[in-house]
Amino acid sequence: IQSLKHSLEKLINPFSETDEFNIDILCDREKGADKDEEHQRWKVNGPVNNSIREILDIKTTQISVELSSKTIETKIHDRGTLIYHIQEPNTKYKLLKTLKIDLYFLNQSAKSNFTRRMGVEAVNFGSVFLFKNGFRVQPYGKTGDDSWGLDYRAQQGYNRFLSSRNLFGRVDIITDNSKQFKEVSSRDGGLVETEGYHQLMSAFKDKALVRLERY
Length: 215
Hints:
The chain is of the alpha+beta class. It is 29% helix and 25% strand. The N and C termini lie far apart (41 Å).
C-alpha cells in the first residue's frame, strides 16, 4: 500500500497550482501502525500529497522556463534571489504552444533538506518528470531511467554537465495535438519520436538545462 501511495504522489503534477481533485487512502488495518510512524510520508492512511516545491524553493538554484506560441520567458533564482529574467521570441518551437519547465540544482544542502522532509533520498525519489495535460508520462523521471539523456551526456563531459543525481524538476506540456505528442502504446514507453517530441527535447536542453549548467 505504501508503494501504491508513493506512486500516486508522482502521478499528478506535484508542481501544479490547482487542486482539481484529491486522493485519500483509507485502510483500517494500518491505523495502529500509523500511530507509531513519525513521518507522514510513511503513514498509509491519509491524503496523497507532497510538499516538494516548497522544499526545493528554499535552498537551491532554480531555472524556470515558460514557453508560448510567441515567446520564451526564462528566470533563474538562486536561493530565493532573482538572478536574471529574459524574454525572447519563440521562432524555433512552433509545435509547443504551452510549456513550463522547472529545473532545480540539488546541492548537498538541498539533498539533505529533501531527505529530511520527504523521508527518502532525492536520488531514490526520481529526477525530471514529464507531465502532459497534468498527468505524468512514464518513465521520465523514474529512478534509473535516462529518457532525457542526462546521465549519458554527463558521462561525456565529466564535471561539466549535470546528471540525474544533481537535478530535480518537471516538464509540463499542455497540448491537444495528439499526433505530435503521442505516448507509446506499451507501458513505460514514453513519447513517440515525432517532430513535436524533438522540439520538446530541444527546448528542454537548450533553454533550460544548458542555461542552468552555465550559471
